[in-house]
Design a protein that fits this description.
By secondary structure, this protein is an alpha/beta fold. Helix content is 37%, strand content 19%. The chain folds into two domains: 5-176, HUPs (Rossmann fold), CATH 3.40.50.620; 189-278, Pantoate--beta-alanine Ligase, Chain: A,domain 2. It has helices at 10-22, 38-47, 78-87, 98-101, 120-123, 127-142, 154-166, 196-201, 204-217, 222-235; strands at 5-7, 27-32, 53-58, 92-94, 146-150, 172-176, 239-247, 262-270, 273-280. The chain binds adenosine-5'-triphosphate, pantoate and beta-alanine (BAL).
Length: 283
């Protein structure tokens, strides 16, 4: 067993972090919603490069789910999560309940602009306000030196990076490359929802992004490459939410390659499962 200490209250968490700080140790935070997989473990492994102590938060944050979304059926696997986090050398799993995170009368939300505009927000209008608010709370609760986020949720990484800068939060936000299945599918807790047939189709998403990124690199107009990737994704049986090229840092819309480093981002649904992915356009 590689079980680890699990803390459920902010007060106990702060007491634990205070002891580490008194010993001069740096602290890393890996925020998650649990159902841990190798993508999360990559964040924990990266955390070791930046800190002596690691906290993984495990909290299925209700405020980032719309009422129609999968909050109720989101996988919850705390015992297995603690085991995996322990094996990855994490010190503490912070697993507050909803009342601890959102006490009676809770009335404050982070308001976002810039990288939060468009893409996910067109389909999940309240999502990033929920994410940013809970991440701001986690930053305040843990007071980490660094916090690690996956590039799989690329817009989320951009939103959190911007928020930390704008609100002068004293934490370095670090992005970690996406961990993939051998066939290219990005690991995601939601992959467990896929039927066998959907799982067979799912890698098309990353393949289509890869083809478009290479085409743009070879000189194809961005709009043409993007349109062709949209066709590939739809033809495979996905219902497409968006597939777009954006500025890699600001996520502002772009007209062409001259507008700066580009990132292609996609969200698409296979049956009841919504998948997201993204890729850098090489220079
Ligand atoms: N395949 C992956 N590679 C790298 N990081 C990942 C991967 N999947 C998730 N992460 C990161 O792990 C952190 C926690 O994500 P979360 O708990 O939502 O897992 P998830 O697998 O992304 O679940 P979901 O299905 O809800 O998207 C986020 O920073 C996310 O970007
Ligand atoms: C960052 C996060 C843990 C906030 O709830 C969540 O959005 C996630 O798991 O990516
Ligand atoms: N990984 C992002 C969490 C969400 O989709 O709600």
């Amino acid at each position: 067993m590689a079980d680890i200490e699990t803390i459920h209250t902010v007060a106990e968490l702060r007491a634990r972090v205070r002891i580490w700080r008194a010993a001069g140790q740096r602290v890393a935070l890996v925020p998650t919603m649990g159902a841990l997989h190798a993508g999360h473990v990559a964040l924990m492994q990266a955390a070791h490069q930046h800190a002596e102590r690691i906290v993984v938060s495990i909290f299925v944050n209700p405020t980032q789910f719309a009422p129609t979304e999968d909050l109720a059926r989101y996988p919850r696997t705390l015992d297995a999560d603690r085991e995996k986090a322990g094996l990855a050398g994490v010190d503490v799993a912070f697993a507050p309940d909803v009342a601890e995170m959102y006490p009676q009368g809770f009335a404050t939300t982070v308001s976002l602009d810039g990288p939060a505009l468009g893409l996910e927000t067109d389909f999940r209008p309240t999502h990033f306000a929920g994410v940013a608010t809970v991440v701001a709370k986690l930053f305040s609760q843990v007071a980490p030196d660094v916090a690690l986020f996956g590039e799989k949720d690329y817009q989320q990484l951009a939103v959190v990076t911007r928020m930390a800068r704008d609100l002068d939060l004293p934490v370095k936000v670090i992005g970690v490359p996406t961990v993939r299945e051998p066939d290219g599918l990005a690991l995601s807790s939601r992959n467990v929802y896929l039927s066998a047939e959907e799982r067979r189709i799912a890698p098309v998403l990353y393949r289509a992004l890869g083809v478009a990124a290479q085409a743009i690199r070879s000189g194809a107009p961005v709009a043409e490459a993007v349109e062709s990737a949209r066709d590939d994704v739809r033809s495979a049986g996905f219902a497409l939410d968006y597939l777009d090229a954006r500025h890699a840092e600001t996520l502002a819309p772009v007209a062409g390659r001259g507008d700066g480093p580009l990132r292609l981002l996609v969200a698409a649904r296979l049956g009841a499962t919504r998948l997201i992915d993204n890729i850098a356009v090489p220079d």
